[in-house]
Amino acid sequence: MRNASQDVMEEWKNLDENWRKKNKIIERPPTLNIKRSSYEMSRHRTRPPTYGILRKTDLVCIDNSEIGKDANMSGRLAYCIWVYKKEYRKRHMPKATLGDKILVAIRGEMRRAIVVGARQHYFIRKHGIPSTDTNNIVLLDDKENPIGNRVLGPMPSHLMRLREKQPILQKVCALGKKFF
């Protein structure tokens, strides 16, 4: 029983030598190359990227609030319930990106949070805005103040540019020490 690669090898042998020289075809049989995306080829990524933060997207809380630490230690991460953004149609929830306010469910409670790190697909990344391996959030209380008093992980420096438009981000950026 012959397979497709044997048929290709047979056809390659039957080509005329002059025709190969004239068309500058190299003297080796073709290989079956599988094209891989740049994400699969990179070694430093640990999780697949997403197209944005939607409903039921898992989120890692990177501030030092008690509820955030409990959620991360228990393995039951916070997840998105709603995205507070104006540009959406009825029954179409928008995708959250860096600096957006979302509603999350964490340890049986509903809390507001700010997205401070997004795992984005390379098709929708913008130039100069870095992507992270996890979707990171900072939890907010009812008065739109951060619950924790420190941000433990690094945050994108793009948030510093967005803080003029959103006063909540000024408070969140003041808590962070590491920016990339």
Task: Give a brief rundown of this model.
With 180 residues, the protein is α+β, with helices and mostly antiparallel strands. 24% of the residues lie in helices and 17% in strands.
Beta-strand proportion: 15-25%
Q: Output the CATH homologous superfamily of the largest domain.
A: Ribosomal protein L14/L23
In CATH, what is the class of the largest domain? Mainly Beta
Rough outline: elongated
Q: So how many helices?
A: 6
Based on helices, strands and strand pairing, what is the structural class?
alpha+beta
Which segments are poorly predicted (pLDDT under 50) over 5 or more consecutive residues?
Answer: none
Distance between the termini: 57 Å
What is the multimeric organization of the chains shown? single chain
Number of strands: 5
Helix content: 10-25%
Strand order of the largest sheet: 1-2-3-4-5
- CATH architecture classification of the largest domain: Beta Barrel
| Helix/strand order, N-terminal first | HHHEHEEEEHH
Mean pLDDT: 78
Number of domains: 2
Rg (CA only)? 25 Å
Largest sheet: 5 strands, mixed, barrel
CATH topology of the largest domain: Ribosomal Protein L14
Subcellular location: Mitochondrion
InterPro entries: Ribosomal_uL14, Ribosomal_uL14_sf
Keywords: Mitochondrion, Ribonucleoprotein, Ribosomal protein, Transit peptide
Organism: Meloidogyne hapla (Root-knot nematode worm)
